[in-house]
Amino acid sequence: MINGKRIAVVMPAYNAEKTLEQTVRELSDVVDIKILVDDSSKDSTAELSRRLGVRTFVHDANYGYGRNQQTCYREALAAGADIVVMVHPDYQYTPLLVPAMAGMIASGVYDMVLASRILGAGALKGGMPSYKYVANRFLTAFQNLLMGVKLSEYHTGFRAFSRELLETLPLLENSDDFVFDNQMIAQAVMFGFRIGEISCPTKYFEEASSINFKRSVEYGLGVLATTLSYRAHKWGMLRLPRFDATGRKVSQQYYSQIAQRP
Question: What is the value of pTM for the model shown?
Fold first, then answer.
């Protein structure tokens, strides 16, 4: 708990058995709630999670990274979290930064905090493939230009959110795939939430989740589509529930019902 705010860490997992324990062991005592959602793994991720004392939820099928996050946030809000930090259990990002990220939200200064691999020039040193680094820089510059903000990167999977943000964004309108992450940032910008960043080292190794080249291309195209649809909505050329009051109302009603769940 920080400043009277209950902190939840959520871990969207798929075949994370080899790195899960190390991730959980490094979580700070400020974390009040630990939740893992297993997207129908083929290994013993869920069993290990339960042994480690983590609240564990298992999907009955592999629904995708985006759907996994939806379950993570739903269960965190239902458990009474005021601040939710998403940590990948593949140990690519250090859990030691959770208190700092949660503190930035608890201070009331930010609604979303991104752990940037680019700040501090740690991405390439940590083993990020060159083609991913180049794509990251291009897509980030493209989004900063069209969305009118200035972030060092949009593609980190290590993030913290206020309860208000999660209850407001139309998350149910987002993709079940990896571009869900990027759509969340675009929504946060559209609805005027404050986004902060913190420098974060990263590690690329065999057990760390990393999408292949084909999926990376699909993700990149999804980012371009998200950015262009954001701009089109902003200009009034399209009306998309992902970015307007319709989707926002549905999301608020949904999470309101979840919060009242026994």
Answer: 0.90
What is the β-pairing status of strands 33-38 and 7-13? parallel
- Residue 200 region by backbone torsions, left for phi larger than 0, else alpha for psi between -120 and 50, else beta: beta
**Tokens encoding 65:** 């990274």
β-pair partners for 137: none
- pLDDT of 176-197, one tens digit each? 999 999 999 999 999 999 999 9
Per-residue pLDDT averaged across 90-111, rounded? 95
Sequential DSSP letters for 28-84: -TT--EEEEEE-S-SSSHHHHHHHTT-EEEE-SS---HHHHHHHHHHHHHHTT-SEE
Segment 106-138, tens digit of pLDDT: 999 999 999 998 887 666 665 676 777 888 889
64 Ramachandran zone, left/alpha/beta (phi>0; psi -120 to 50): left
CA angle 221, 94, 60 (to 5 degrees): 60
In order of their start, the domains of the chain are: 7-259 (3.90.550.10)
